[in-house]
Amino acid sequence: MSLIDILSRRIAAQGPISVADYMAECLLHPEFGFYTTQPALGAEGAFVTAPEISQMFGELIGLCLAQAWLDQGAPAPFTLAEAGPGRGTLMADALRAARAVPGFLDAARLVLIEASPRMRGLQAQTLAAHDPAWIDGVYALPDAPLFLVANEFFDALPIRQFLRDGALWRERQVGLAEGRLTFGLGPAQPQPALKARLEDTRDGDLVEYCPAAAPILQAVAARIADHGGAALVIDYGDWRSLGDTLQAVAGHARADPLAQPGRADLTAHVDFEALARAAAPCAHTRLTPQGVFLERLGITARARGLARNLAGAALDAHVAAHRRLTHPEEMGTLFKVMGVHPRTAPPPPGLEP
Ligand code: SAH
Predict the structure, then answer these.
(1) pTM of the entire structure?
(2) Between 19-28 and 3-14, two packed helices, what is the crossing angle to 10 degrees?
(3) Where are the domains of the chain?
(4) 156 in ligand 1 pocket by Cβ < 6 Å?
(5) Distance, CA 166 to ligand 1 centroid (Å)?
(6) Which atom of ligand 1 is nearest to the CA of 150?
(7) Which residues contact 198 (CB under 8 A, 6 or more apart)?
(8) pLDDT digits (tens, 9 = 90+) for 290-349
(9) Closest by alpha carbon to 248, among 228, 232, 268?
(10) DSSP-assigned beta bridge partners for residue 165
(11) Contact 224/138 with Cβ under 8 angstroms?
(12) Ligand 1: does its nearest atom lie under 6 Å from the Cβ of 41?
């Protein structure tokens, strides 16, 4: 039995499924899902994320959150949270850097939002010294000041895709043709959630909608509005997306999203406009390119400092990692950062109102 068999049987019995249902099964199926079975991240995994490229990324995030904590009067205790922590690398680097900020670690209660039992196991190894608590979703975040980071988390949440047909929409679905998974379209229907997109699209355009994203950010913003705190959302995407951004990556290469369900990572661009709307009752910052954000936080000075102890291939790799995180042709502009903060507090360092 494999995921392709399970999905084929389900579709044969019940009809085509939405792209969101397909994505959810591929990523988090309890036996065959990508995050259940694959090493997933890092050099031996399917793809490499920013914290796996260089320790500088997590260090600067840690210092950014610690400065935001100082700016708000160093509340204690507070929740230090990460959504989708992967191997725990970002948080380990953040905690190590934040040791320099007196009182921060003592006041922090580490909470990890993670759906995959396998990923929880990896995080337990990396972060054992910090006594983390795991929760399934943001609804279970404690009622306390909240300082949260989400790097490449929202892009893993299932999206629905709709093709415009007049004033109606046809949902893109995954069905079966001659025994193979294939994309198709459902019947034309009104979609109240896409009302605003009737204004900026034309017949035949494809738009995406991530049903889980706004409720998650609303729950985070509610904690921050009530108790103080800040959230950093880092991901690829833009203010609003148009067209098909569903992407499969396996073995560091682009793959066909339907070819090997559960073996490839599936992501979609994040619609930051939807997140910004959900951030009310808090303020949100301007959407800032990752490269600009990291430069403002001082990545070049940190890179020079680390370079002093390196030579040869290690130095070359370090220089390449700095470039990869910041350069416009690499992750520097594709990835964006948006901060969420109380209306009464300044934006987190590196971000503008
Ligand atoms: N932030 C990490 C990992 C990104 S991969 C990094 O930058 O390296 C996405 C992470 O989110 C994984 O840990 C995955 O298991 C987790 N995840 C995916 N969908 C989730 C969901 N619906 N709820 C909670 N965690 C989820």
Answers:
(1) 0.96
(2) 150
(3) 34-158+209-287
(4) yes
(5) 37
(6) 1
(7) 164, 167
(8) 999 999 999 999 999 999 999 999 999 999 999 999 999 999 999 999 999 999 999 999
(9) 268
(10) 168
(11) no
(12) yes
